[in-house]
């Protein structure tokens, strides 16, 4: 039996994501289904309203925090590394290195092993477990930054740019646009590792997930809500984190002479930085860059590579040149919620950042 005979994109109207027929479940379905395996907590992978959800304990906590009682009727926690038989399949979750609780779903059926990565990165991240390569027959990989132009710089160097700007402009508030889940907490930890021990000020939309990370043992140091600043001048010379959209709305008026930074892999593209009005673009991503995508494909050792949600054509060509059988998957609704849209669309803007 070929892998595509038992694991494949769900048919139209069938819930989306990948349908694992012999197990009776979907992986990261885009619409509510009876049984879902969720790789991580970002909203394009973790939708609300499923009947039964299986995920890591951390991803379940994120879903409950974001969706409340509507997240799912029933949850089953599966820690990474513990195999579970579901129907005619054997499922094991392995760390994906993307955000807290992110996992690669490794499914085995009749001697064939398929690794569904979800989203992943290969850089060290003090807020989550590192990606764990698994030898397999089919590797399903994202391609968010699947073009050779995307080679992310060193994270510490990008944090150094932010701290240098803070020293150069001590009278200005430094507003950094960060996605609420994963990027925010990672940036805080990188700042702490660089020696920034002052309180970091938060937009109210970021507080709940920072609290969740703290509850899971990720120490973030002193954090303060912007709403509790005694006056505007209190925020001069301070770092404020907010969702990227805050840089373009009335909330920005709370900050004295803000210098806007954006932390995203898309900041490699100057047009993206201009669209975000970023004086200080910081290329810090929670996805693998071009070289890391190729490295991961090689380490997984899969004869077949299935590519989804990103720059599929370039990565297909590179994987084929390296001796793999490669093809693109059309997964409806996929595309990380912190990704860019089609840059060719007039007036296209991010929904957040990557």
| Strand adjacency order, main sheet | 7-8-9-10-11-18-19
Individual helix count: 7
Quaternary structure type: single chain
CATH superfamily of the largest domain: Ribonuclease Z/Hydroxyacylglutathione hydrolase-like
**Poorly predicted sequence stretches spanning 5 or more consecutive residues:** 333-353
Cα Rg: 20 Å
Counted up, domains total 2
Overall outline: globular
The strand count comes to: 19
Tell me the span between the first and last alpha carbons.
37 Å
Mean pLDDT: 92
What structural class do the secondary elements suggest? alpha/beta
| CATH level-two architecture of the largest domain | 4-Layer Sandwich
Which fold name fills CATH's third level, the topology of the largest domain? Metallo-beta-lactamase, Chain A
Element order: H for helix, E for strand: EEEEEHEEEEEEHEHEHEEEHEHEHE
Give the C-level CATH assignment of the largest domain.
Answer: Alpha Beta
Largest sheet: 7 strands, mixed
What helical percentage do the residues reach?
10-25%
How much of the residues is beta strand, in percent?
15-25%
């Amino acid at each position: 039996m070929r892998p595509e005979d038992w694991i494949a994109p769900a048919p139209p109207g069938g819930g989306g994501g990948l349908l694992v027929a012999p197990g009776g479940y979907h992986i990261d379905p885009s619409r509510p289904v009876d049984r879902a395996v969720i790789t991580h907590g970002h909203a394009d992978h973790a939708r609300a309203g499923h009947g039964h959800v299986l995920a890591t304990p951390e991803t379940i906590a994120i879903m409950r925090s974001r969706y409340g009682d509507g997240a799912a009727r029933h949850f089953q926690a599966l820690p990474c590394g513990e195999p579970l038989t579901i129907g005619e399949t054997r499922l094991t979750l392995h760390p994906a290195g993307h955000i807290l609780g992110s996992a690669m779903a490794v499914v085995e059926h009749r001697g064939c092993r398929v690794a569904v990565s979800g989203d992943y990165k290969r850089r060290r991240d003090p807020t989550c477990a590192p990606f764990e390569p698994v030898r397999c027959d089919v590797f399903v990989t994202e391609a968010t930054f699947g073009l050779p132009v995307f080679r992310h710089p060193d994270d510490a160097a990008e944090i150094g740019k932010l701290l240098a700007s803070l020293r150069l402009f001590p009278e200005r508030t430094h507003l950094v646009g960060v996605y609420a889940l994963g990027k925010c907490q990672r940036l805080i930890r990188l700042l702490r590792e660089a020696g920034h021990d002052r309180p970091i000020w938060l937009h109210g939309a970021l507080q709940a997930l920072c609290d969740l990370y703290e509850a899971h043992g990720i120490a973030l140091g002193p954090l303060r809500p912007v709403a509790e600043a005694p006056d505007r001048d209190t925020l001069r010379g301070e770092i404020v984190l907010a969702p990227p959209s805050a840089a373009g709305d009335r909330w920005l008026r709370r900050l004295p002479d803000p210098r806007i930074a954006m932390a995203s892999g898309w900041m490699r593209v100057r047009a993206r930085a201009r669209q975000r009005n970023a004086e200080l673009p910081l290329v810090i991503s929670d996805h693998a860059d071009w070289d890391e995508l190729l490295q991961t494909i090689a380490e997984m050792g899969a004869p077949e590579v299935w590519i989804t949600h990103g720059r599929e054509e370039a990565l297909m060509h590179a994987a084929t040149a390296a001796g793999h059988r490669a093809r693109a998957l059309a997964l409806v609704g996929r595309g990380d919620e912190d990704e860019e849209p089609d840059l060719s669309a007039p007036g296209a803007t991010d929904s957040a950042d990557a």
